[in-house]
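Subject: Sanity check before I submit

Could someone independently write out the C-alpha cells for this chain? I want to compare against mine line by line before I put it in a report. The sequence has 141 residues.
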Amino acid sequence: MIVKQVSVFVENETGRLAKLMQVLEDNGIDLNAATIAETGEYGILRCIVQNPDETVEILKKNNFLASITNVIAVTIENRPGGLNAVLKILAAAGIPVKYIYSTIQSLSGEAVIMMKVDDAEKAAKLLTEKGVKLFCLEDLK
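---
Independent answer below. Compare away.
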C-alpha cells in the first residue's frame, strides 16, 4: 500500500526537536512510525501519521519545513530473513530502495517496514503479485 510520509527538516539546535514534538502534541498528532537521520546542520524526521496533509499544514504554520513523500509499507514475518525476502524481490526487478524504517507500534507476530523506492506504484504491484502483504495505515488503529 502506498502511504503518505511526512518529512520535516529539523535544525540541529538544542530544543528544536522538542519544539517539533510539542507542536505535534498540542495538535493531537500521534507518530505511528518515525525515523530521524542527521546530517551536519539539520536532521530529517520521516514519520507516518493519521492525517499527513493536515500535519504538514500545521507544521508549516509553526515554521517547520515539511513535505509529503509516497512510501510503500509492507508487513513481513518477524524472523531472520523476513526483510531480505522482500528486498530480493525488489532487487531482482531493478527497483532500488532508498531507505527503510519500521513502525513504533507492532502488530501481532509481524513487523511493518516503510520503504522509500524509486517507483512506489510499480514496487507495490510487484510485491502484491509476489504474495507480500502490503500494510494499510488503518491496520495500526
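---
OP: Matches mine. For the report I'm noting this point. The mean pLDDT is 87.
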